[in-house]
Amino acid sequence: MPQVSLDELIARVRSGYVVSFPTDTVPALAALPEKADLIFALKQRSQDKPLILMGAKASDLWDFVAGDDRTPWQQVAKLYWPGALTLVLPASPRVPKQMNPSDPSTIGLRVPNCAIAQSILEQTGPLATTSANLSGQPPLRTMAEIALQFPDVLTLQSQATTPNIGVPSTVAKWTDQGWQILRQGSVKLEF
C-alpha cells in the first residue's frame, strides 16, 4: 500500500483516490462523495449498505440534510459530536446518489473525535467513508492489515497516533417515532 504524507493524501483524495486514515473508532476508507462507487467496488459491498458522510464539524454536514426543523438532530449532535455516533437523517438533493444507491432518501453523518481525521476533513470537505474491510468481515485495525487487503489504497506515512478504539460507531436513524438504533457501538444514546 502506498504510504504518503498528509499533504499528498489530501491532494490524492481530492483528485479521486480512495484513502485510509485513522478515526476515533476504526480506520476508515474514504473518497469524495461523488466517487463513493470506488469504495463499494473495493469492499465488494452491496449497494443497499450506504456509506457515511464524515465531516470535520457539524456545520459542514447540515447542508446534506433535508427538512426545516433540524432541532432534534442538532441537539443530539451537540451532545455526542465529535464522537462515535452516526446519525441517519433525511438526505437533501446535495447528497450524491452514489452514497446510498438503493435509498437516496437518507444519509448517515458523522463527526469523528480524532485530530488526524478532522485535519484531513477540514482540508477536503466531507468525505464518503466506511470501515476498512471487505464487506461482511470484521473491521481492520492496523495499517498492515489494510495494506494486505487493499494494496492500492493510500495511507499516511506516520501512524504514530492512531486513537481508534476498534468499535464501529453507534448508528441512530431518525424516524417518525423518533430515534431508532440500527447498530450499537460505544456511544449509548439517552433520550
UniProtKB/TrEMBL annotation:
<dbReference type="InterPro" id="IPR017945">
    <property type="entry name" value="DHBP_synth_RibB-like_a/b_dom"/>
</dbReference>
<protein>
    <recommendedName>
        <fullName>L-threonylcarbamoyladenylate synthase</fullName>
        <ecNumber>2.7.7.87</ecNumber>
    </recommendedName>
</protein>
<dbReference type="InterPro" id="IPR050156">
    <property type="entry name" value="TC-AMP_synthase_SUA5"/>
</dbReference>
<dbReference type="GO" id="GO:0000049">
    <property type="term" value="F:tRNA binding"/>
</dbReference>
<keyword id="KW-0548">Nucleotidyltransferase</keyword>
<keyword id="KW-0547">Nucleotide-binding</keyword>
<dbReference type="GO" id="GO:0003725">
    <property type="term" value="F:double-stranded RNA binding"/>
</dbReference>
<dbReference type="Pfam" id="PF01300">
    <property type="entry name" value="Sua5_yciO_yrdC"/>
</dbReference>
<comment type="similarity">
    <text>Belongs to the SUA5 family.</text>
</comment>
<keyword id="KW-0067">ATP-binding</keyword>
<dbReference type="InterPro" id="IPR006070">
    <property type="entry name" value="Sua5-like_dom"/>
</dbReference>
<keyword id="KW-0808">Transferase</keyword>
<dbReference type="GO" id="GO:0061710">
    <property type="term" value="F:L-threonylcarbamoyladenylate synthase"/>
</dbReference>
<keyword id="KW-0963">Cytoplasm</keyword>
<dbReference type="GO" id="GO:0008033">
    <property type="term" value="P:tRNA processing"/>
</dbReference>
<dbReference type="GO" id="GO:0006450">
    <property type="term" value="P:regulation of translational fidelity"/>
</dbReference>
<dbReference type="GO" id="GO:0005524">
    <property type="term" value="F:ATP binding"/>
</dbReference>
<keyword id="KW-0819">tRNA processing</keyword>
<feature type="domain" description="YrdC-like">
    <location>
        <begin position="3"/>
        <end position="187"/>
    </location>
</feature>
<dbReference type="GO" id="GO:0005737">
    <property type="term" value="C:cytoplasm"/>
</dbReference>
